[in-house]
Amino acid sequence: MTRSCGVLRTARSWRAILVVILAAFLPGSAVLADSSGDQLAAYYDRQMAIRGGIAYGWIGSDRPTPMISDVLQVGVSKDAYYALRRDGSLLTWTASPASATLLMRDVLSFAAGNSGWLAINRTRSLWQGSGREPPRKIAERVIAAAVGDGTDYYITQAGELYVRGLANRGQYGDGRLLASGEFVKTASQVVAVRAHTGHALYLASSGEVFGTGGNVNGPLSRHGLGDKATSWGRIFTGAKGVATGAAHSVAIREDGTLWAWGSGFAVEPTKIAEQVVTVAAGNGSTIALSADGKLWAWDGGRGPRQIVLDR
Question: Looking at residue 75, which CATH number applies to its domain?
Fold first, then answer.
């Protein structure tokens, strides 16, 4: 381990500053979709992965199918696939990529989910769209975003987390249970946020993982277990990436180990793999890319099994 890494880990205030600066100026550094990285996506039973610039998609345990080339980032909703191409064009399709629709140009990164999609352009403006409708600008100086089931999230360059949408399960993390028509600031020093069915996680600049919202099956570990948590609570430490599915969550530690908790796994975070680069979670499914380039899957906690991507 280098001396500079040791300094970053011990001086948390400097680390927080550096993370925010890097996220603001390096494309793709912290602006992710519904997984811990650009290469994977999962939502409900729909999944995607990138291999050699080609986006593959599949549903459930079906065989992955090559769909579109020159792709930098993939994303999915319950009913559609999304892909961000190298030229900055954001595309979506349902069955065949041959009928893909252009949603927006000059996109740096995006998020997709049940209620629509959010896109960040190269000037760091955040745009919101639903289906194939034209997007509208909703915020400035944004580095990351997430789309849940009716609740949306974004992070500013200052590391502030804003929330708008449904609040009935405590999705805001500030104690409220009534929806707000405007985005509300609910946390700070945030570098990543993920949301799914009534709950959300965020990754702090300190490497701590916080969660709020519905927790019937344990996606927030013991925080509000059995019903819901209405405020952000610490779940995990030492993380560099997070993802959350319908009823379980996963995190990648700084040493590359993969940890999972919730439905299909133990309530307490449990190590399930090593040397993991990126992970995504869906409706009981978990897919992870390892450092050797192999793609692995867990089905309802069972696994792993290797997924082969063939052209």
Answer: 2.130.10.30
Show the tokens assigned to 39: 């290469």
User: Is residue 99 one of the residues assigned to a domain?
Assistant: yes
Question: Can you name the residues that pair with 40 across neighbouring β-strands?
Answer: 49
53 phi-psi bin (left φ>0, alpha ψ -120 to 50, beta other): left
Question: Which pLDDT score is estimated for 286?
Answer: 97
Nearest by Cα to 26 from 109, 103, 133: 109
Q: What is the pLDDT of residues 230-275, one digit of tens each?
A: 999 999 999 999 999 999 999 999 999 999 999 999 999 999 999 9
CA 157 to chain centre: 17
Give me the number of domains the chain comprises: 1
pLDDT for the residue 34: 53
Q: Is residue 246 in some structural domain? A: yes
> pLDDT tens, 33-91?
457 889 999 998 999 999 999 999 999 989 999 999 999 999 999 899 999 999 999 99
Contact by Cβ (8 Å): 67, 94? no
Range of the structural domain that residue 301 is part of? 12-307
The single residue listed with the structure tokens 């793609």 is 295
pLDDT at 308 over 50: yes
Q: Which pLDDT belongs to residue 33? A: 41
Task: Give 4-28 pLDDT, tens digit per residue.
Answer: 334 333 334 434 433 433 333 333 3
Is residue 201 one of the residues assigned to a domain? yes
Residue 3: inside a domain: no
Report the distance separating Cα 284 and Cα 173, nearest Å.
24
- Asked if 228 and 264 count as a contact pair (C-beta separation under 8 A), the reply is no
